[in-house]
């Protein structure tokens, strides 16, 4: 078996090339964290060739977990060849990683991606001369349009079979002399030069791996300190300067940039959308348009038809007639019609709205706009001691919380990484969109509710930022945020296949859940609503208030009474969301069907709103289920990424506490401000709100170690 590793910067187009080479459909994005673990595929037409898509990195000096994944794979698993994808439009910066890959003593092929942009900018690259200087094949590529894919594939396979190693980077004589002296002190290996450079840089992970004797370490320290004194700089900066000097020499006469000083279209757009004063209002308006299109126009027409016609009139009515013709029992008819079709029909009815939202978000991501939002939010986040990289996790979580948690691997500081994982699942993900649409429609009586859904999205971002700020002002998370460096890709028209693939993947993930997890949950929910203990013993109940669900929900409901929805129906729906958030809508769908005794099609919006005494209570319910602990899949991922039971329980505990208190504040203060009475719950809400404000605005501690532990609290 032949293994070829794809390595490159996060915005190099690496995943697009992986999809083209293997026929896969991995997510393609414009920010770090899209590939957070290595993906494997077989080269099309050559199943014996394995392609490994490694997480995007800027160098082999790892600071984050996904950078460690890439470096460990290249050093220890030794692929047969490295296919280095380089963004040719920013060639100098991208060759920094290339200079390190050349030192691994492995065959390398350099693919100059985005050559269409290079030509558009009227820059010139002498590919043959660059290939001679690097000592490896250099191939022109435009992965998005498919140009050069075959050539890159053939060159990578030939390199893997030929085993010819490239030229290594050469530094100035004083540096080379020190590296040669260090190399003699190290165990012999094929990557001895790379190890020598890392030891000179005092790389802790490499030093732990090599386990050098004290005498050798002492000699290395003397060599390092001597050169640092001679060059008046620290070891890492010396190597960085040497690499860029080498890159400048490699590109001299090979790379000619167009020196015309006119602003590109991307620069002109950025002068507006990243403007200090206009950036945030534009973002808010853009997201308002997204929710208007999905909730009030295109998506709603389809959703209304599914909820009002397809499910009740076609599916339920026809299935009832069919089962009655088979003389099925009332319990079977109720299970299939009310439990399964009614339960699954409720969340699936919102798929059209979800599809429009995902389509719009995929369009914004692929054209390059969402990367600018990460840049804009970093500027704001840093004022409050937060890292802009956290916002990348938040944006990824709009599709699903699981990759959102994993995307936190790109954050260097452990405390910021843990904090981001704790709060990121509060973002309105795909599973929560049906809840938002359902409650928004219920509050408005099925009328135009796009602005409530839009406001909920903005509220989600705002609530996450406040949660992070509160945590940041505690001892365990205090400290300066890690610097955020991110390449902004040039604006371009989104690739239709990419946008449609991303939209389909997100929708299909939801539909698969409906066909598996939600199907089982609907059956269980129907059983709990249909059976219970009566005077005659256990069996089907005549009134839903006698059901097992009513008993379970009624026992727990008093806990939620201060939030405004202390009835068993809303409580039962909320509890079901801990399995999967979509199940909240499924449970409400089953409740609507089982509770309806008129013999007519139940009005979804009206029936749902009867579960809440007021609009404030409905908003409290929505806020709680947006901010509380995520579904089981996300909790499992959180536990794996935390790799610490105490931290996992702390995360869940904080999520539940924050969700409960925010919901309490919304209902109690909202009811009070609109003419309701002042009670113990109102006083508690004011006290909690005051404590939150104090935590947000109190002076932040700065000098705190970056490695956090539960005892830091």
What share of the residues does DSSP label as strand, in percent? 5-15%
How confident overall, as mean pLDDT?
Answer: 82
- Total beta strands: 10
Radius of gyration from the CA trace?
29 Å
Question: How far is it from the N-terminal to the C-terminal residue, by CA?
Answer: 50 Å
Describe the structure.
This protein is α/β, with parallel strands linked by helices and 713 residues long. It has three domains: 2-162, Rossmann fold (3-Layer(aba) Sandwich), CATH 3.40.50; 173-256, Helix Hairpins (Orthogonal Bundle); 280-697, no CATH class. It has 31 helices and ten strands. The strands form three sheets. Strands 2-3-1-4-5-7 form a six-stranded mixed beta sheet, with helices on both faces. It has a two-stranded antiparallel sheet with strand order 6-8. It has a two-stranded antiparallel sheet with strand order 9-10. Helix 14 (330-348) crosses helix 26 (582-595) and helix 22 (496-515) runs parallel beside helix 23.
């Amino acid at each position: 078996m032949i293994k070829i590793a794809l390595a490159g910067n996060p915005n190099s187009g690496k995943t697009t090339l992986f999809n083209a080479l293997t026929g896969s459909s991995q997510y393609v994005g414009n920010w770090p964290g899209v590939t957070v673990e290595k993906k494997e595929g077989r080269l099309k037409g050559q199943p014996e060739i394995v392609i490994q898509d490694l997480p995007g990195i800027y160098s082999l000096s790892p600071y984050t977990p996904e950078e460690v994944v890439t470096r460990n794979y290249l050093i220890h698993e030794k692929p047969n060849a490295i296919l280095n994808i380089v963004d040719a439009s920013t060639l100098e910066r991208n060759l920094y990683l290339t200079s390190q890959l050349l030192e691994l003593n492995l065959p390398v092929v350099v693919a100059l991606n985005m050559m269409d942009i290079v030509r558009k900018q009227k820059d010139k690259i002498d590919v043959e001369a660059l290939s001679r200087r690097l000592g490896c094949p250099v191939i022109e590529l435009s992965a998005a349009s498919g140009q050069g894919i075959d050539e890159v594939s053939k060159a990578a396979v030939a390199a893997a079979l030929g085993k010819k190693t490239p030229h290594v980077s050469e530094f100035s004589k004083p540096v080379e002399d020190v590296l040669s002296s260090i190399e003699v002190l190290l165990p012999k290996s094929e990557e001895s030069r790379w190890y020598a450079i890392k030891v000179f840089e005092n790389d802790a992970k490499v030093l732990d791996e090599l386990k050098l004797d004290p005498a050798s370490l002492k000699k290395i320290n003397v060599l390092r300190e001597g050169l640092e004194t001679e060059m008046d700089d620290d070891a890492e900066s010396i190597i960085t300067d040497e690499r860029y000097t080498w890159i400048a020499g490699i590109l001299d006469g090979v790379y000619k940039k167009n020196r015309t000083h006119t602003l590109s279209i991307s620069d002109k757009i950025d002068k507006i959308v990243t403007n200090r004063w206009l950036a945030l209002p534009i973002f808010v308006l853009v997201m308002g348009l997204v929710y208007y299109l999905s909730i009030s126009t295109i998506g709603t027409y389809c959703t209304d038809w599914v909820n009002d016609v397809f499910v009740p009139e076609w599916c339920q009515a026809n299935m009832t007639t069919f089962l009655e013709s088979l003389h099925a029992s009332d319990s079977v008819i109720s299970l299939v019609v009310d439990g399964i079709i009614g339960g699954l029909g409720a969340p699936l009815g919102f798929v059209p709205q979800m599809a429009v939202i995902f389509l719009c978000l995929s369009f914004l991501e692929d054209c390059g706009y969402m990367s600018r939002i990460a840049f804009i939010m970093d500027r704001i986040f840093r004022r409050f001691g937060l890292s802009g990289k956290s916002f990348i996790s938040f944006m990824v979580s709009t599709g699903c919380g699981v990759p959102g948690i994993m995307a936190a691997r790109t954050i260097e500081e452990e405390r910021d990484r843990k904090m981001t994982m704790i709060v990121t699942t509060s973002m309105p993900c795909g599973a929560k969109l049906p809840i938002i649409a359902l409650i928004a429609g219920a509050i408005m009586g099925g009328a135009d509710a796009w602005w409530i859904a839009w406001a909920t999205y903005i509220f989600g971002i705002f609530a996450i930022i406040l949660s992070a700020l509160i945590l940041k002002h505690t001892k365990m998370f205090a400290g300066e945020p890690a610097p955020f460096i991110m390449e902004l890709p040039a604006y371009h028209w989104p690739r239709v296949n990419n946008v449609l693939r991303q939209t389909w993947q997100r929708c299909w993930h939801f539909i698969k859940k409906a066909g598996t997890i939600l199907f089982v949950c609907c059956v269980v929910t129907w059983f709990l609503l249909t059976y219970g203990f009566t005077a005659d013993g256990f069996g089907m109940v005549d009134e839903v208030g006698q059901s097992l669900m009513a008993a379970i929900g009624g026992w727990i409901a008093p806990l939620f009474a201060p939030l405004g929805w202390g009835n068993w129906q809303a409580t039962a729906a909320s509890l079901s969301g801990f399995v999967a958030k979509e199940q909240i809508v499924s449970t409400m769908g089953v409740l609507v069907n089982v509770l309806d005794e008129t013999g007519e099609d139940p009005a979804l919006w009206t029936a749902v709103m009867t579960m809440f005494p007021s609009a404030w209570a409905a908003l409290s319910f929505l806020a709680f289920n947006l901010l509380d602990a995520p579904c089981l899949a996300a909790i499992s991922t959180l536990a794996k990424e935390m790799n610490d039971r105490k931290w996992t329980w702390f995360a869940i505990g904080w999520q539940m506490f924050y969700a409960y208190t925010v919901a309490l504040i919304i209902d109690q203060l909202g009811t009070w401000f609109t003419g309701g009475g002042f009670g113990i719950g109102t006083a508690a809400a004011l006290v909690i709100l005051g404590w939150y404000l104090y935590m947000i605005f109190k002076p932040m501690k700065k000098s705190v170690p970056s490695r956090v532990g539960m005892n830091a609290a």
